[in-house]
Amino acid sequence: MKQNLLVSFSGGETSAYLAKWLLDNKSEVYNMVFVFANTGDEEENTLSFIELCSKKWNINIVWVEAFVHHNERIASTHKVVNFKTASRNREPFKEIIKKYGIPNQNFLHCNREMKLNPIKSYMKSLGWKDYKTAIGIRVDEVDRINKNRKELGLIYPFISDKPTTKQEVSYWWNKQDFRLNLKSYNTNCRTCWKKSDKVLSQIYKENPNYFDFNKEMENKYGKDKYTFFRNGRSTEQLIKDLEKINSKPRDKHSEMNFQTNLFSESCDIYSLCGGE
Questions:
Q1: What domains appear along the chain, each with residue ranges and CATH number?
Q2: Across-strand partners of 62?
Q3: Any bridge partners for residue 241, and if so which?
Q4: Which of 51, 154, 166, 224 could form a disulfide with 149 if both were Cys (CB 3.0 to 4.6 A apart)?
Q5: In sequence order, which ranges of the chain are alpha helices (DSSP H)?
Q6: How far apart are CA 71 and CA 98, in angstroms?
């Protein structure tokens, strides 16, 4: 008898490769459901990539977004959207902040309310109670494994079944006729507070307007004391630090090393977002 398996499709190349590998190698073992939780803060290339994976591989990837219950003590549930109807202007993020406040290193409700709870809600709507969840974490990032994985029913096939590294993921994608046209540090929410200052400095250099959202939310809901970024920094304070990083002169060799070390992992449900 097949087991039920939720496959977390984060929108990165590792989770996409995992979905394809599971489909090709484990279809006789699992009844699989593929789910992507859209925050409204993803790059358009990420959304296009997910849609292309669905069409190229004939996978029904279910898109969900948070449905926030204001003035009720109820966790976020879900609404099903698709490529055309998905939010693109941080609408779910704004609703989460409106109810729960500014997320940061002390208040970790963004991933919980925008990804985890909506996906749980969708699975409940299917009538699934007993199922495992496959997460796209590789063998070279075992530090991101959830310590409560057994209790939560989490599996990591790219560690246990097919040990896979980032280099191997990239090699596989190089052989495909499409891939994610996005720099690794531009994955996940654009200005996620979990990204390192080095990563954020590059994002600010390329798209300073991305941080307007953070300023707006802090001004509207921060009450002069709640801020997004590490060490209690406001967006204005962070930008000053990012400008200092970007103002440091770098020769060609230093610039190459700087770019090479920019890295930000996918923010999967039940796992930590990457920093570099």
A1: 3-183 (3.40.50.620)
A2: 35
A3: none
A4: 154
A5: 13-25, 44-57, 91-100, 109-111, 117-125, 149-152, 157-160, 166-174, 197-206, 212-221, 235-247, 252-260
A6: 11
